[in-house]
């Protein structure tokens, strides 16, 4: 199984009833897989905060629940997460977070282990597919035993690896009857102070019990080298240092102090090997335990590997293990992507573009080079507003974000612009899907997480309901219409919204013939400026790869000499 599928299987076998998540690589496939189990209610929430709140509500209702997200999604969900650490659970509740060491698909490398420590909840970190399924099942028992939410931590290499998983039967759990208890569930200051005390007592008990839990295990070998590690780094350590003794941490918060002290006493040289921040190392040094090595041997940035560990210990690395001069493959928007026309226009008009999180962020790269910023989900709108307030310029700056991002955290930003008198322009890219994470449904797509028909929220009507008078819809592959809309709306002295409407090219069947460049091409290279991967420079002139072309016709619109035409449809 893919590890994310193993996580899902573990939740299913544990009897989970309600799952609410927002897609975020590398966690997305967990919820996708759970949507295939018909006796589990699975939904895509508009954002991670909603997802966690739904999961906590389901727990209060007496069933086992789950919410999954990537590491930056936990920032969005931090508000309910921290308080749920006080109020505890009825049915077991697990929050799965997948970190992204190396920034494979993220804007930072934050270490989610600190969330568990700061909030005061147990954190589990499995190291392979089998453990992911088993840890997930055990997490629900742990949650209900100690009356606490559980943070399950994964990362890109774990979530996207595969391994053998032994399947079990689903254990159906009876709904725990609801009992009103305002002292436990109403986090007003008077109650919260008491709940905090109870939480501290609970965590001390879990710390004591963690010294004997089977989440953590000692593998004694040669005692000259002892390594404390967890997760994917455990796999690297076993490959790089097969003779070393290892304390493999599965419950990574709270740390098992007695177990660590006992292991340290049995080895001559103790090392901590962990990706990310020195989470283990700082706590172990604070215990007064001497380490032979930690972060000074490695790095806080990026990913580790078996070869990195070998090098750090002065061991030979196999020849050819590191490819120094691999050819680059820059990320590009797909051929026929409906976003391409808009960003071509924004580049042409030299607008300052506050961008957002989505496929379209790639438009920051050449040749379109049209996005000026990318901070976090929904920040395009609020940053554009701030830019306008700072400069007094509303005509040269626009905010650009996708439909899913708009529902995630853009609506409140738009309300803020309207309320605070902005005269700027917001462009919402409605491609009818959450594209970047693999085509998950969202509130505008007309289907739910399980593929069933669902209400589709009309973005134009929503914007008008806020009070915005100027809302324009346009086809993003109609270059002239897009340019006209951008010019007119940015020139207004009041807030406006442009909605580009065209489905993602990956979810619609191609019906148009591919295009070709005629022999009378003047080699002006205007078609190369749109950055379409179906167009390459061959034998001194632009050339369209027909097998890649989707027939969108954007290249023909930018051609100055009308030499790009659609191929004739072949007779069947």
Number of helices: 20
Morphology:
globular
How far apart are the termini?
42 Å
Main sheet summary: 7 strands, mixed
**Helix coverage percent:** 25-40%
Radius of gyration, taken over Cα atoms and rounded to an integer in Å: 27 Å
List keywords for this structure.
alpha/beta; five-stranded parallel β-sheet; seven-stranded mixed β-sheet; 572 residues; single chain; 35% helix; 20 strands
Describe this structure in words.
- With 572 residues, the protein is an alpha/beta fold.
- Helix content is 35%, strand content 16%.
- Helix 11 links the parallel strand 8 and strand 9.
- It is globular and about 80 Å long.
- The mean pLDDT is 95.
How do you describe this structure in short?
By secondary structure, the chain is of the alpha/beta class. Helices cover 35% and strands 16% of the residues.
Topology (elements, then pairings):
Blueprint: H1 3-13, E1 18-21, H2 28-34, E2 41-44, H3 48-60, E3 65-70, H4 71-76, H5 78-87, E4 93-99, H6 113-119, E5 123-124, H7 129-146, E6 150-155, H8 156-159, H9 182-185, H10 189-210, E7 217-219, E8 222-230, H11 231-240, E9 244-249, E10 251-253, H12 257-266, E11 269-272, H13 279-286, H14 306-312, H15 339-348, E12 352-354, H16 379-391, E13 397-402, H17 403-419, E14 425-430, H18 459-466, E15 470-474, H19 479-490, E16 496-501, E17 515-517, E18 535-538, E19 541-544, H20 554-558, E20 564-566
Parallel strand pairs: 1-2, 1-3, 3-4, 4-6, 5-6, 8-9, 8-11, 12-13, 13-14, 14-16, 15-16
Antiparallel strand pairs: 5-10, 7-9, 17-20, 18-19
Helix pairs in contact: 1-2, 1-7, 3-5, 11-14, 15-19, 16-17
């Amino acid at each position: 199984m893919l590890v994310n599928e193993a996580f899902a299987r573990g939740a299913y076998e544990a009897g989970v009833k309600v799952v609410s998540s927002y897609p975020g690589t590398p966690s997305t496939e967990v919820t996708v897989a759970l949507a295939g189990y018909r006796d589990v209610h699975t939904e895509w929430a508009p954002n991670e905060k909603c997802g966690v709140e739904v999961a906590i509500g389901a727990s209060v209702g007496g069933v086992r629940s789950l919410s999954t997200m990537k590491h930056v999604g936990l920032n969005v969900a931090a508000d309910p997460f921290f308080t749920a650490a006080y109020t505890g659970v009825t049915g077991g509740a697990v929050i799965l977070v997948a970190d992204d060491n190396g920034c494979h698909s993220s804007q930072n490398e934050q270490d989610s282990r600190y969330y568990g420590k700061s909030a005061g909840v147990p954190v589990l970190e499995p190291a392979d597919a089998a453990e992911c399924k088993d840890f997930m099942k055990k997490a629900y028992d742990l949650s209900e035993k100690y009356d606490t939410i559980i943070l399950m931590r994964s990362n890109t290499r774990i979530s996207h690896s595969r391994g053998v998983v032994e399947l079990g039967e689903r254990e159906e759990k009876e709904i725990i009857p609801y009992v009103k208890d305002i002292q436990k569930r109403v986090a007003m200051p008077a109650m919260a102070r008491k709940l905090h005390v109870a939480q501290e007592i609970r965590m001390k008990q879990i710390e004591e019990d963690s010294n004997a839990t089977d989440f953590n295990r000692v593998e004694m070998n040669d005692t000259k080298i002892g390594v404390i590690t967890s997760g994917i780094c455990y796999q690297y350590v076993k490959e790089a240092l097969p003779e070393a003794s290892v304390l493999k941490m599965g419950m990574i918060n709270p740390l098992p102090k007695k177990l660590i002290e006992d292991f340290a006493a049995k080895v001559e040289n103790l090392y901590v090997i962990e990706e990310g921040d020195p989470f283990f190392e700082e706590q172990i040094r604070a215990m007064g335990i001497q380490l032979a090595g930690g972060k000074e041997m490695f790095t806080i940035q990026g990913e580790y590997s078996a070869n990195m560990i070998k090098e750090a210990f002065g061991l030979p690395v196999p020849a050819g293990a590191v490819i120094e001069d691999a050819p680059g493959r820059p990320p590009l928007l797909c051929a026929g992507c409906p976003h391409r026309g808009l960003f071509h226009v924004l580049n042409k008009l030299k607008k300052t573009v506050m961008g957002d999180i989505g496929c379209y962020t790639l438009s920051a790269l050449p040749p379109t080079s049209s996005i000026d910023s990318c901070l976090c989900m929904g920040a395009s709108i609020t940053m554009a507003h701030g830019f306008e307030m700072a400069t007094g310029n509303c005509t040269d700056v626009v905010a650009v974000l996708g439909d899913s991002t708009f529902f995630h955290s853009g609506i409140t930003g738009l309300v803020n612009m309207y309320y605070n008198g902005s005269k700027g322009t917001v462009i919402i890219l409605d491609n009818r899907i959450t594209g970047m994470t693999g085509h998950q449904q969202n509130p505008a797509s007309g289907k739910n997480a399980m593929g069933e028909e669902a209400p589709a929220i009309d973005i134009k009507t929503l914007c008008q309901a806020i009070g915005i008078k100027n809302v324009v819809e346009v086809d993003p592959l109609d270059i002239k219409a897009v340019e006209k809309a951008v010019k007119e709306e940015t020139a207004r002295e009041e807030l406006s919204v442009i909605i580009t409407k065209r489905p993602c090219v990956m979810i619609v069947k191609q019906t148009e013939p591919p295009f070709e460049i005629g022999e009378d091409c003047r080699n002006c290279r205007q078609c190369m400026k749109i950055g379409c991967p179906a167009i390459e420079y061959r034998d001194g002139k632009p050339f369209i790869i027909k097998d890649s072309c989707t027939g969108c016709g954007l290249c023909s619109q930018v051609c100055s000499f009308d030499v790009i035409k659609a191929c004739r449809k072949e007779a069947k």
